[in-house]
């Protein structure tokens, strides 16, 4: 099994432990899940995009605006999921492909029910929090972003061709996304902040326990590593020991130990005694030998 596969299996085992409630829901409601949900969402966006291009649909009726929902435009609660990405057709097509790729990968990994639940919770949090700002203008951008972050969490070493040329691992793109979210949260308005909270909240519902376990594991590994280093330091034998005073390169690492060429064998001395000692001779013992 590949390294990515082993990492994914470990992450999945943590996720299962933290989502026992979801397991019960899946057993009772799993038959209601929509398979290949990402494909349906992208197909809906393609149809909407074509209708807008042909002048058959006014794109302003799609975004979620809570005040308009309360005025009777109830379809906006779901229609905002079908807003096509705002860009040129080439990048829109690329965005659709990436969303299908990552969404299908999550569905294959989690199963259809849990992926459906991930999208549903992200949508529910986004809709619910948007009503705290009735005039907010909400799109599906942060929901799509949460799908990307979930994929990057499970497949950090997966490579994408940035600008169709430069290969880059998704973990670095995910880091850039987190930094962008942080920046937008600080400088943006409350509408954007609430959408970020919804997306991050959905992400943490699925991965919060796993992230906490990983941090605790790494902390334990650091403590163990420090303990092993300390133990090695305590049992380490000095390479140099002064024959007269007993100082070593461990007790006094700042000293420059040397060996006397006039002594029998390899006799080591510290700077203080290298020129002030009695030379040892063959068959004699102790520094007093002459």
- The CATH class assignment of the largest domain is Mainly Alpha
For this structure, the CATH topology of the largest domain is: Rhomboid-like fold
**What's the end-to-end separation, in Å?**
69 Å
List the domain count as a whole number.
2
What best-fitting shape do the alpha-carbon axes yield? elongated
CATH architecture verdict of the largest domain: Up-down Bundle
CATH homologous superfamily classification of the largest domain: Rhomboid-like
Question: Which helices and strands, and how do they pair?
Answer:
Blueprint: H1 3-18, H2 20-29, H3 37-53, H4 66-70, H5 76-79, H6 89-110, H7 112-130, H8 141-154, E1 159-162, E2 166-169, H9 170-187, H10 190-235, E3 258-259, E4 268-269
Antiparallel strand pairs: 1-2, 3-4
Brief characterization of the structure:
The chain has 10 helices and 4 strands.
Task: Describe what this molecule looks like in 3D.
The protein is mainly alpha-helical and 290 residues long. It folds into two domains: 3-221, Rhomboid-like (Rhomboid-like fold, Up-down Bundle), CATH 1.20.1540; 238-290, no CATH class. The protein contains ten helices and four strands, in the order ααααααααββααββ. The strands form two sheets. It has a two-stranded antiparallel ribbon. A two-stranded antiparallel sheet has the order 3-4. A hairpin with a 3-residue loop joins strand 1 and strand 2 (166-169).
């Amino acid at each position: 099994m590949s390294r990515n596969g082993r990492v994914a299996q470990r992450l999945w085992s943590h996720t299962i432990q933290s989502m026992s409630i979801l397991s019960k829901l899946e057993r009772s409601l799993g038959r209601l899940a929509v398979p290949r949900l990402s494909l349906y969402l992208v197909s809906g966006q393609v149809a909407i995009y074509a209708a807008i291009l042909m002048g058959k649909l006014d794109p302003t009726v799609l975004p979620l605006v809570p005040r308009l929902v309360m005025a009777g435009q109830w379809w906006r609660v779901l229609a905002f999921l079908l807003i096509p990405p705002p860009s040129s057709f080439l990048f829109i097509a690329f965005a659709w492909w990436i969303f299908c790729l990552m969404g299908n990968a999550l569905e294959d990994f989690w199963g259809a029910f849990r992926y459906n639940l991930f999208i549903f919770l992200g949508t529910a949090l986004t809709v619910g929090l948007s009503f705290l700002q009735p005039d907010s203008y909400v799109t599906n951008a942060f929901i799509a972003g949460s799908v990307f972050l979930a994929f990057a969490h499970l497949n950090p070493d997966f490579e994408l061709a940035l600008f169709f040329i430069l290969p880059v691992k998704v973990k670095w793109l995910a880091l850039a996304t987190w930094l962008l979210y942080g920046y937008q949260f600080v400088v943006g308005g409350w509408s954007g902040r609430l959408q970020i909270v919804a997306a991050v909240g959905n992400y943490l519902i699925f991965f919060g326990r796993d992230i906490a376990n990983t941090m605790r594991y790494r902390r334990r590994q650091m403590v163990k590593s420090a303990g092993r280093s300390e133990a090695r330091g305590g049992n380490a034998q000095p390479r140099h020991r002064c024959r007269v005073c007993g100082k070593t390169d461990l007790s006094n690492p700042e000293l420059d130990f040397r060996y006397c060429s006039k002594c029998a064998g390899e006799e080591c001395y510290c700077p203080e005694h290298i020129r002030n000692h009695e030379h040892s001779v063959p068959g004699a013992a102790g520094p007093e030998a002459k």
